[in-house]
Design a protein that fits this description.
The chain is of the alpha/beta class. It is built from nine helices and 15 strands. It has helices at about 30-45, 75-85, 100-105, 120-130, 145-155, 180-185, 195-200, 220-225, 255-270, and strands at about 5, 10, 20-25, 50-55, 90-95, 110-115, 135, 160-165, 170, 175, 195, 200-205, 210-215, 230-240, 250-255. β1 and β2 (about 10) form a beta hairpin. It is globular and about 50 Å long.
């Protein structure tokens, strides 16, 4: 049985209707954040898809020292707080250091543990201590089964309000691969599983000093993930991906969001209406 994680009036579970975590890779400006959040919120409301807005105040693991990192903790939290009040949406953002957990937890509804930092025990303990729902990104270098160790760290630290998110696995040079057979392994832990489609499209280091990406494959990959009966999707979008300050090659064009989500919702409903066939 899968657990149901509650975020306000949003129920997140592998056997519940799909939830969307969506937004910007990184906060570029307050106006862009508000525009993007409102667009997501309006479309999701029209399609009856529960929605949580995501944006990072800092991207601490950029490829190059000259890459844009974000608005920073203080300014970023002010922007996120404005988004929450203006657009009436719950929030998720990632943190990178233990001291960030408490102040960020005062603003957002879900704390996100970044993939590259998912084994950092001190960070896990600080996040668990907040009592917030935690979204755990699967590290690119970990197998699906190894996520059980990270779940155990949170549980022993007193927090079992947990979500897992698949985001691709390192495979060779400048490439990520998504193994669909890893989805049932992670679902067996009993927690909701999300699929971060846009980060899974990355080509790490594909543009020398920044990541490349395969935006053209976003629909194909998202369909494959939803076919696994999961809790929902994680999607980043941008009004003009060519001008995005981080991960533009992976971002969904914002004007394509509605037809994309229309297809995804239809698929989610179809898949979850079917009984699993025991072939063991």
């Amino acid at each position: 049985m899968t657990q149901t994680i509650q975020v306000g009036d949003i129920s997140i579970a592998n056997d519940a209707p799909m939830v969307l975590i969506g937004g910007l890779n990184v906060l570029e400006s307050e106006s862009l954040a508000l525009e993007t959040a409102q667009t997501f919120a309006d479309i999701c409301k029209s399609l009856a898809i529960p929605f949580i807005f995501k944006a990072s105040f800092d991207k601490a693991n950029r490829s190059s020292v000259s890459s844009y990192r974000g608005a920073g903790l203080e300014a970023g939290l002010k922007i996120l707080e404005q988004v929450k009040s203006s657009c009436n949406v719950p929030l998720i953002t990632d943190i990178h250091e233990p001291h960030q957990a408490a102040p960020v937890a005062e603003i957002v509804d879900i704390l996100q543990l970044p993939a590259f930092l998912s084994r950092q025990t001190d960070l896990v303990k600080a996040m668990a201590k907040t009592g917030k729902v935690i979204n755990i990104k699967k590290a690119q270098f970990l197998s699906p089964a190894e996520m059980g160790n990270i779940l155990q760290k949170f549980e022993e630290a007193g927090n079992s309000q947990l979500i897992l998110t698949e985001r691709g696995t390192s495979f060779g040079y400048k490439n990520l691969v998504v193994d669909m057979l890893g989805f049932p392994i992670m679902k067996d832990f009993g927690y909701p599983l999300l699929f971060d489609v846009t980060h899974s499209l990355q080509l790490p280091g594909g543009q020398s000093s920044s990541a490349g990406g395969r935006r053209k494959d976003v629909t194909t990959l998202a369909r494959s993930g939803l076919a696994q009966k999961i809790a929902g999707l994680f999607i980043e979008a941008h009004p003009d991906p060519s001008k995005a300050k981080c991960d533009g090659p992976c971002a969904l064009p914002l004007d394509k969001l509605k037809p994309f989500l229309e297809q995804m919702k239809e698929l989610d409903v179809l898949v979850k209406a079917q009984d699993d066939i025991d072939t063991a």
